[in-house]
Design goal:
TIM Barrel
């Protein structure tokens, strides 16, 4: 079984995690709606991740909705002392496959209570505002989460899908431990946000770390390096992320035990300076 060899990062200066985590979005039904066909397999994937040394699991209340959080609570609670479960709120999932935004304080505060119940915990290690709601003042949304932190229901706060300006706004209100934006070898449009996270020692959690199977202009380079290392392009993409920044916390997701171990094995890849430069330039 592959072992997580990634080095560590301290989320919020307190929660020490291996820098390769696991994203639990895929542990749901088709199109991220409802329960998976094989719930026993979903729980097995979670257990295998933990057994492989993954101690950062990322989810959201919209995955299912509620399904991913519930499965994590069923499979892993009570949680090991070193396991960090991060979740998100402020984005809904409906039967039509849409993702409506809900950032009003009343909704967020209720969402926190629901996540606590599904995850079977008294406080949330890391709660991330899933996406800014254009119909709600951004500061109001962040203030609501700051109040939940003051009440002891949230330990650390993160933001997701934000600009540098929005990150700065949130940091003026409450300590921000993580940012979760789309980012991968082929899509670095949020490089400025990553650089801000490096400056502030804020963990950067890239969603879509494998580019949904397409690394764009970097696909050919990734395939070449993968052949040189006798690895998969997915493993090379993860190894590049880990090498690219010390605050990077990739969370590749899967519903397959085999794919999980393939992802974890990427932490053992070592890119040469030449290989890294070819993937970066």
């Amino acid at each position: 079984m592959a072992e997580n060899q990634a080095d560590t990062f301290d989320i919020g200066g307190e929660l020490t995690v291996r820098r390769l985590g696991f994203g639990a979005m895929r542990l749901t039904g088709e199109d991220i709606i409802g329960r998976p066909d094989d719930e026993e397999n979903a729980r097995k994937v979670l257990h295998e991740a933990v057994n492989a040394g993954v101690n950062l699991i990322d989810t959201a209340d919209s995955y299912g909705p509620g399904t991913s959080e519930r499965l994590i609570g069923e499979a892993l609670a009570p949680y090991a002392d070193d396991l960090v479960v991060a979740t998100k709120g402020g984005l809904l999932r409906n039967a039509d496959g849409e993702w409506p935004k809900r950032g009003d304080p009343a909704h967020l505060k209720n969402a926190v209570l629901c996540s606590l119940d599904r995850l079977r915990t008294d406080s949330l290690d890391l709660y991330q505002f899933h996406r800014p709601d254009p119909d709600v003042d951004y500061e109001e949304s962040i203030h609501a989460l700051a109040e939940e932190k003051d009440a002891g229901r949230i330990d650390h706060i993160g933001v997701s899908n934000v600009s540098v300006e929005q990150l700065e706004t949130a940091r003026d209100i409450v300590e921000i431990a993580t940012v979760q934006n789309q980012y991968n070898m082929g899509d670095r449009s949020d490089e400025d946000v990553l650089k801000a996270c490096e400056e502030y020692d804020v963990g950067f959690i890239p969603w879509g770390p494998l580019g949904w199977g397409d690394l764009g202009e970097k696909q050919e380079a990734a395939e070449a390096v993968a052949e040189e290392l006798d690895a998969s392009t997915y493993q090379v993409a993860l190894a590049w992320l880990l090498e690219h920044s010390d605050v990077m916390l990739p969370i590749p997701g899967t519903s397959s035990v085999e794919h999980l171990h393939e992802n974890v094995a990427a932490t053992g890849l070592e890119l040469s300076t030449d290989q890294y430069n070819r993937l970066t330039e």
